[in-house]
């Protein structure tokens, strides 16, 4: 019976450890995506504003596939660098214009009443949103902003695992 409890605690520990490592990796990728980190042609972004609500809500994480401007279709949700602020933005391509062989997009946030003020040059396209993961972006933002607390929680979990394993070893030595 005691070995079953030990197996349960070890499994629980390794599940938490795996989740922690995945969150650290996602935090790193989400933070570095703005500066050019791409894994297998995909980037991840945390949605900060409600401009795409209800399609994509703030706090969701979006996975963006890098594509060429001529692969974008009307009504695709795309991610791009803003020509004005150089920020990363995710909006819907409501129209595609070919201007002297140059692809431009007319974009609009689903929650916005009007389209974006300037056409988007195809060179600023990052990619097309493939899917989203609800709430994970908000959790990642919390972890990024509270790294110390998250590290303390992780160290506490390791400490508890150490105590449980050392207690189990003492019990086995007595038997």
Automatic annotation (TrEMBL):
GO molecular function, one term: serine-type endopeptidase activity
Keywords: Membrane, Transmembrane, Transmembrane helix
Subcellular location field: Membrane
EC number: 3.4.21.89
Superkingdom, taxonomy of origin: Bacteria
Primary enzyme class: hydrolase
GO terms, biological process: signal peptide processing
CC terms in the record's Gene Ontology section: membrane
NCBIfam families noted in UniProt: sigpep_I_arch (TIGR02228)
Protein name (database record): Signal peptidase I
